[in-house]
Amino acid sequence: MSVPLVDIRNVSHRFGQLAVLKNVSLMIEPGSYTILLGPSGSGKTTLLSILGGFVTPSEGKVFIHGQDCTAVPPAKRPTTTVFQDYALFPHMSVGGNVGFGLRMQGVDGATRAAKARDALALVGLAAAFDKKPHQLSGGQRQRVALARALVIEPAVLLLDEPLGALDLKLRRQMQDELKAIQKRVGTAFIHVTHDQEEAMALADHCVVMNDGRIEDEGPPERVYARPATRFSATFMGESTVLAGTVTEAKNGIVTASTAVGAISLPGASPAGGTVALAIRPEHLVLGEAEGDVALGMAKVGDVVFQGSFRRVLATSILDAALQFIAKAPASATVQAGDTIPVSCNAQDIILLAD
Amino acid sequence: MTMRAAIRLAAWVYAIAVYGFIFLPVVVLVLFSLQATSFPIPPFTGPSLRWYQAVLSDARLTSALVNSLLVAVVSSLASVTLGFLSAWGFARFVLPGSALLRGLITLPLTVSYLIIGMGLLVLFNWVGVPKSLLAAGIGHVVINLPLCFAIIYSQMGDHQINIERAARDLGAAEWKVLLMVTVPVMSPAIFAGFFLSMTFSWDEFVISFLLTRFETTLPVEIWNLLRSGLNPKTNAVGSLVFAVSIVLVVFFELTLLRRKPA
Hints:
Chain A has 354 residues and is of the alpha+beta class. Chain A contains 8 helices and 20 strands.
């Protein structure tokens, strides 16, 4: 097996008494787009700072190209960072900003200018070479920061919530561009975000973090369809979660008793243990057209029209603590106050150890 | 209505009284520097530039003027450099007893120039530094360094930390980060500190008086002149000092108070 581009081994970090990373290990493949996804305080930004060299971890090691980079300063490691606030040099022109890294490498002025122009063209800002950063919009500054970090051809590009400061429309547009630029340059990108839509749209490899640990990692399709933990099931997309106790487990079929009755589904889990059953909103069936697992009656609390679908929140009649989150077609006639049967198909239920 | 008019009138009177109180002595000084006769007392006999001519042809005064400029420029450069470096150190590194050390560095702002001058006199005497322009210059660094530190430290916010980080991330060595990024970004505060130090050094009297002997600065030379009685020449040289101070203060205001680019 070839050496992974980045190999994070058993990294832990504390700020004073507060443990922000707890024994995290992660490998990054060359040319991949990795997303570190998690709520604030999950340690994802600290992990990125450790990769960039701005923070030296309390324990553990970081290898890049097989070399121990744990304590190598930012200037000497093959990573560059796109900062959340862009951190452009306000006293330099856009061209000066983009050429800065090359200048530090001792590249001559003409080559520097040519490469900076190429990098600006890559991000669609060829005309901004002579402008000052304060003359640009937020989205344009973002591109300059990206060009500045890419022009010195790092092995890994680190992006700290790069789209966080942009409005929604611009964010979606920049998201598509980031992906396209990454494919074109082939550099490994590691991108921190708390936006799960951004994660699903961009990632080749999605790493879900919570409370200083990696909860789940893999292709976003797999993480969405078969999340490894309850946290990952609720953070990466929404889920209805049923708590249950396993009453029988044999021949690859698990039966669990829940507030809405016994549910059998494919899977394996020790009898007597507690489990959580997660169901994605698009897999819940509302009304008479039933799936093969009945989930009882529910009273509809709220119906929100979302354009292409209606988001339905309903409370189970059998257990007031159980809240169904379902996606109904835009044409559905369901209304707040209705009492309707809810069901789903057994193979769509995600079995999670609790 | 009459009440409001009375208040307006009172406000105007008050304003004129305040500004008159502040500026009348200076106006009188400048006015009688243009006196044509030998005494700076009414009636006004000018305008005439004969006393300015007398000042500029007086070798002692002109050499004192050059000395003053030299001491002001060199001591301000030293103050602003040391002030910048200490502000950067305090803003960017976690130091033990940081608040206490910051307090100590700004403490000389509250000590009278007389005490500082006397202290330096005793100290220089002890270590064998003779009374000289250099000694006065060091005294001016002592009073101006805390000022430069306070101005620069107050402008050194967290938003520049990421800019410095970005420079490091792109391969800049620490001294390059300072020279190519931090200094240019902080330049308004640095220039403000420099010009304010210049202003204070330029018309500082007590420390220069205590620490210089043969070559001396302009305020000390003016004091020597005053000992032989009032004469429009003192007014003329005072007006020159005032004019230079005005120019320095204008530079200070322009650099510190100009709008920052977004």
